[in-house]
Amino acid sequence: MEIARLKQEITLDLTRGTAATIGNFDGVHKGHARLIERVLAKARAQNLASAVITFCPHPLQVLIGPHTPPFITIREQKLDLIEALGVDLTMMLDFNREMAALSPREFVQKYLVDWLNVKELVVGYDYTFGKGRQGNFAMLSELGREFGFNVERLDPVIINGAIVSSTRIRDLIKAGDVFAVRPLLGRFYVVRGNVVSGESRGRLLGFPTANLQLENEVTPKNGVYAVWAQLGDRMLPGVANIGYKPTFEGRQFSFEVHILDFGEDIYGQELRVHFVQFIRPEQKFSGPDELIARIKEDAALARRILESPEAQL
């Protein structure tokens, strides 16, 4: 997959035209996948290049700044997921105040027509664009007739009686209901980060942990989770602990993973954590002995969960 941010960075031959979809695609969930799969089908049928048009930074980071909600997927993960679907080109448009001020017509003419030669455009049921979100499906269709491209709007994807959306997924993750997220994403929820030095308290307790430095991903609510820890191509069973270590009066947020039956030094390496099941909330114990006993129970329960058919990747 080719990734470009400017027209001059595109090396693909787009003279035959492009089938494209446009959006933020946070999570690249089942609804997003359906849009992209429809684009791929149109591209194959009409011998067009396939493209996903998205934005970097996320528009909310420009429009509302530090109050931006955390993301389901960081940029690199989003691009990996889009690439895995088989897209030819991802256009990462540089969203700024100038772009936000463009009228729908100006946006369409510059990016869809002049840059990408779009012939087929697929959008979601609630897609809006342009200054003040004035653009909608009706306006896109009118602009498509003017500039020579077709527009198709897909209905929402419904799973378990509700629309699949980034907001729904984000709320479930924040509530700790990570198992319910899997059918919406088509995979377990994943965060990734580099393993950094911690307080080494887990090692002293007999349960060494990998402490992760995360970006602005959605973090499940504080507590203990059964997880798959991905180290390179290896999927290792583990237990994640999220929170402030109340037994030791901790004040600094930590995200740590104890990998079962594992003793390698992995400082500095990237670890991807696949959340399978919430085990229990964070709690304060009377001291190290009670904590160790509970960690043993957590590890045993996580092992049973991860051995079940429903927990397999």
TrEMBL record:
List, in alphabetical order, the Gene Ontology terms for molecular function in this entry. ATP binding; FMN adenylyltransferase activity; riboflavin kinase activity
Q: Gene3D superfamilies per the record?
A: HUPs, Riboflavin kinase-like
Query: Any idea which UniProt keywords this protein has?
Result: ATP-binding, FAD, Flavoprotein, FMN, Kinase, Multifunctional enzyme, Nucleotide-binding, Nucleotidyltransferase, Transferase
Quote the InterPro entries the UniProt record gives: FAD_synthase, Riboflavin_kinase, Riboflavin_kinase_bac, Riboflavin_kinase_bac/euk, Riboflavin_kinase_dom_sf, Rossmann-like_a/b/a_fold
Query: What is the catalytic activity of this protein?
Result: riboflavin + ATP = FMN + ADP + H(+); FMN + ATP + H(+) = FAD + diphosphate
Q: Which domain of life is it from?
A: Bacteria
Q: Which Pfam families match?
A: FAD_syn, Flavokinase
- Which Enzyme Commission number(s) are listed? 2.7.1.26, 2.7.7.2
User: What GO biological process terms are annotated to this protein in UniProt?
Assistant: FAD biosynthetic process; FMN biosynthetic process; riboflavin biosynthetic process
Q: Where is the Riboflavin kinase domain?
A: 184-307
Annotated pathway, please?
Answer: Cofactor biosynthesis; FMN biosynthesis; FMN from riboflavin (ATP route): step 1/1; Cofactor biosynthesis; FAD biosynthesis; FAD from FMN: step 1/1
According to the UniProt record, what class of enzyme is this?
A: transferase
| Role this protein plays | Catalyzes the phosphorylation of riboflavin to FMN followed by the adenylation of FMN to FAD.
Its family remark reads: Belongs to the ribF family.
Name of the protein: Riboflavin biosynthesis protein
